[in-house]
Amino acid sequence: MSKLHGVLPLFKERMNIFYMLAFVPLLILAYYHSGWLFSIIIPIYGFILLLMKKQKLLLYHQAKHSQKALGLLIIFGSFLIYYALVPFFPSASFYTAANYAIYLLGLCLTLFEAPAMKEISSSVFLIVAATSSSFVSGWLEPHLSPYVTPQFAYLLEGILNTLGIRATVYFPDHSPIISFPTMQGGTVTALFNWYCVGVSSMLIFSILLVILLIEEHSNLKSRMTWSLVGVSGVLALNILRVVMIFIADYFYGAEVGGMVHYVIGYTIFITWLSVFLYFFPRNRSKRHIRNL
What we know:
Blueprint: H1 2-7, H2 14-32, H3 38-51, H4 54-57, H5 65-78, H6 81-85, H7 97-111, H8 117-131, H9 133-162, E1 168-173, E2 175-181, E3 187-191, H10 199-215, H11 220-252, H12 254-279
Antiparallel strand pairs: 1-2, 2-3
């Protein structure tokens, strides 16, 4: 019982309530959309960025009653935003991403005074901009894919051969195909296309990097260094992702490799994003926190 009394105050603190309510929709989305992991990955990126704003959000007072009513109305409307947008943009992936962004806006208005909106604007911008990354990727594909995709395939061929997996790249119809024998005596033949390069993760990380560099007033050398570290890390992890998929194919067969293919990209990218955000040199100068 004493432990319960120690936990209950956590649910009464406004900041804890905000983050718990911001996280709960991700659990619900993960449960109902477990078959479409990409549909919830962008909201997760937004939540990770939101975690960085905790100290700044402490500076803001509670919302007034009229604003709370508006915030609750927006929260309710956030569950319907997809149905308002899809008639005009039927091919857009608004579901979950747009809904979650509007939900965060309503949640902020419900719990904090209006100026606090600027603190969550970067999370909302990341969610909205990252949702459009698939359109940007599709636009870049015909211009860059003929040059980037074959070189990426040859790089993977060299890595696999170095690891003892006899891989071969050939071009039966302009798109590179990687083929190699497996330990079970079969052969894996994989079509390597534009999306295997990991362009979407590069675009999303670039959007995040722009947000961080705009918000943090560090010197140019520091910005350039961390930009290089971040982009290089994403490139290296994209290579690692595909190599791990092919290693799983080689040792355990295409079925296991397919399972790895489904989860490894998201797992690696979220891990790298978390590590990068943790070590990124944010402005940690102490600021006076008002009594709320």
